[in-house]
Amino acid sequence: PPGCHIFTVSARDADAQENALVSYSLVERRVGERALSSYVSVHAESGKVYALQPLDHEELELLQFQVSARDAGVPPLGSNVTLQVFVLDENDNAPALLPPPPGPGGGAGAVSQLVARSVGAGHVVAKVRAVDADSGYNAWLSYELQAAAGAARSPFRVGLYTGEISTTRALDEADAPRQRLLVLVKDHGEPALTATATVLLSLEDS
């Protein structure tokens, strides 16, 4: 966060009096389209390096820069040190649902599919697709079928890590012709972030 202390640069000068006074400064450069000084600052006397804005892993994984240490002699003498700041990923992005591929059905925010009643157990009828802009464990997604209150046990299941919706048994006439499923997509960050997909299945006689 802004104002966070990142590191302290320390230098010593073997001279005496003013010749031994050390001051610190950034060696300015461009980081992408922005100046380095928009990301970090260094205190001229203490050498403490501070963040000036939040650093986002998705935008900047590594911030490498130099800090200059100069004495107060005439002419001034000094040296530079290179710092590498590795920006760790935070779980700051929720899963994003992808639109269904082109085809029949598929309303805004929903997956719509026709399903023949003749399909057997284990038949894949639809798939929920999602991505997460985070990295590593924070981007690992799992899928859960949400049970509707008061509804009969669904003849469908969702693959925990695939998002594929398949039948748990053969379909029959007792199954409602319109099936509305809610699939919870969850990442593995702390705390976990979620999104909910709606899947509309229309059962038809083959």
Automatic annotation (TrEMBL):
It comes from the Eukaryota. Residues 1-97, 115-206 form the Cadherin domain. The chain holds residues 469 to 674 of 794 of the full protein. The gene is LOC107032901. This is Protocadherin alpha-12-like. It comes from Vicugna pacos (Alpaca). It is found in: Membrane.
